[in-house]
Structure formats: C-alpha cells, structure tokens
Write a structure and sequence with these properties.
Number of strands: 7
Distance between the termini: 61 Å
Structural class: alpha+beta
Order of helices and strands: HHHEEEEHEHEE
Largest sheet: 7 strands, mixed
Strand content: 25-35%
Helix content: 25-40%
C-alpha cells in the first residue's frame, strides 16, 4: 500500500507532494524559483553557458546562460544546422563574454569545431557523465 504522499505524487502527478526519497524537495525548488536577484547581485559573477545541440527531427538546440547563482531563461532553437547553431552560440559568447562554454559533444561536435576555428580554446572532453556522454569545454579567446 502507498502512503498518501506517494499516492499524490505517483497517481495524481502532484509534484507539490514532497516525498521522503527525493533529492531536492519541491519546497526548495519553489523557494529558489520565487527568489529574484537584482543586477548588482550578479554583476561581476562568473558567467557560464551550457549548450545541448540538436540535429534534425523534433529535438531543439538549447542554451542556458548562468551568471553566478542566476540561470537565465533557456534559449531554444529548432531546426538549426551546425553552422547556424555555432553562429547563435558565438553571438552568446560575444554578448555575455563567459568564462566557459560547455557543449554536449553528443551532437555538438560540429559546433565545437566551428567555435574552435573561430578562436575558442578547446579543452577536449573535460567531463564524463553517467552514460559516458562527453561534454566539451571551450573557453573564450583572450
């Protein structure tokens, strides 16, 4: 038999029902989502961009800019080819001047190569994640 919390979470899709076996309780997520930072709170904080590149089909290329504790609204592009995706990421790099750009190398090899050819320093497959998916790191050129 399920507990009331488990029933609400599993059968009613009530994700406000915080269960005992979760990594991040919904109350903390809600609190974090409701917190608003002022420009001064993040000014000077390190900027990082994360990119998941898609190719064809229904999938989308997504980039997220994070400055300090603030992750901004994800940027979602559908139907971009490799060069178009590299152009969009290159523009983000120009505007935000990030410390680092993390590109998922699962479909992002062409984007990584294009960014590297345009001057980004490539540090290879810096991380190995569960499932052995590679993530490459490009740093802004000096």
């Amino acid at each position: 038999s399920m507990s009331d919390l488990a029933w609400r979470q599993e059968m009613l899709c009530d994700f406000t029902a915080s269960a005992f076996d979760i990594l991040i309780p919904i109350d903390l997520v809600s609190q974090a989502c409701s917190h608003h930072y002022l420009d001064g709170d993040v000014m000077g904080a390190e900027c990082v961009i994360g990119v998941d590149v898609a190719r064809f089909g229904d999938d989308s290329t997504v980039a997220v800019v994070r400055r300090g504790l603030v992750a901004f609204e994800p940027l979602v592009w559908h139907g971009l080819n490799t060069i178009e995706a590299a152009d969009r990421i290159g523009e983000l790099i120009r505007v935000h001047r990030p410390h680092a750009v993390f590109v998922d190398a699962g479909r992002g090899e062409g984007v990584i190569d294009t960014l590297r050819n345009r001057g980004a320093r490539h540090h290879g497959d810096t991380f190995r994640r569960p499932g052995d998916r590679r993530v490459a790191l490009c740093q802004q050129s000096d």
